[in-house]
Amino acid sequence: MLKIFDHSKESAAEHIRYLIARITTGIIFGVLIFTLGRYCFIKSFAEESFAKLSSDEFRHFLIVSFRFDVKFVCLAYILPLVLGVFCFTRKLSALYRRFYVVMNLLVFVWLAGMTVIHYFYFKTYDRIIDVFFFAPFKEDPIAVAVTVVKDYPFFTGMAALAVACALYLWLTAKVASFLEKHIRVPEKTPMRAAFCFVFIALFGMLCRGSFGTFPLRQLNAVVSNDELVNAAVPNGPTALHWAWKWYNLQDKIPEVSEDQIIADFKALGLESTREDLFAPLRIRTDKNEFLEQNQPDIVVTVMESMGWHMFNYDIPEKRDLYGELRRHFNEDFVLHNFVSGGNGTSASLTRLFVGAPDMNLSTSAYSTREYILNSFRAYQKKGYKVIYLTSGPGGWRDYTA
Questions:
Q1: pTM score, two decimals?
Q2: Which of 12, 210, 238, 314 is the right S-S partner for 234, CB 3.0 to 4.6 Å?
Q3: Are 225 and 400 in contact (CB under 8 A)?
């Protein structure tokens, strides 16, 4: 009868040590690859920008970059980890050891290859990998291959990659063997199960890039007002992931004709023409010569909401939740029934300021487009200087008029 699990305590512990040591070594070397690639990127394209950074900004850059590196290295090692977890028999463990060398090498080629491609892509186009990266796949493959061989050090790169692969396999084998000797697997089965669970759970959290509520996202890559600094945050696989997401989104963005817009306005009882297509969205106030000659400073304050239900616990004499706002709630206009523009602060701000439904808009291929509902542009046309202040995450600062 075929046994589902035939490991002894010793062989199971040996397999756990092997698996954890190899995955951990792969993560360490993967992060080192990204770090080396980022160092070359900064030295080549952004050295002056980084010289101007404050110590706090540079520290924030290092932390966010490291989180992106760890996240995408861990994502690359999901398959080796999952296959290793399901090696319930000694034969599967032995087979896994053979195949792990191949999987580990493929992960290295992927990480190192994308790091090099990301570097040369920026060198050629002055931007990180974006949707244009996929354009050559729609062209003649032979012509694309000829262009790559002619314009880039292809054969030199292949030779260097072969040497790097051999060096990588040798180094990782040494480091993994060292770690394997120092990993202590608990003897008792419940403790051993808990040990494995903690490792897998930690690995899963690293794949999210965050231990908080939200996973690490494209929005988090904005760490500075300098575009070159922000461009140095993502590694090659990260930039490719963002580009792939926007590439797929392009096919889903509907194209709306002018006639359809006019028809939609008409269905709402609003008149529109081709000459002034968005007239229903524009409201013109009465002419005010005093304001034209004495332009006032305008301040718009947006406060984080904590939800209306909290005020159900208000007891003026014992638990005053309103404070000085109580008079305003009693005397001013208060709207009780409304929903936010988006599911989250940043998503709501994007809809409020720009009228667009995607909070990653500022870091997308559409960041340079003009938007009809941009709340700031009308003021800019009148000579106003728009200043946006926020104490939120770095990504929130990337709202421009």
A1: 0.70
A2: 238
A3: no
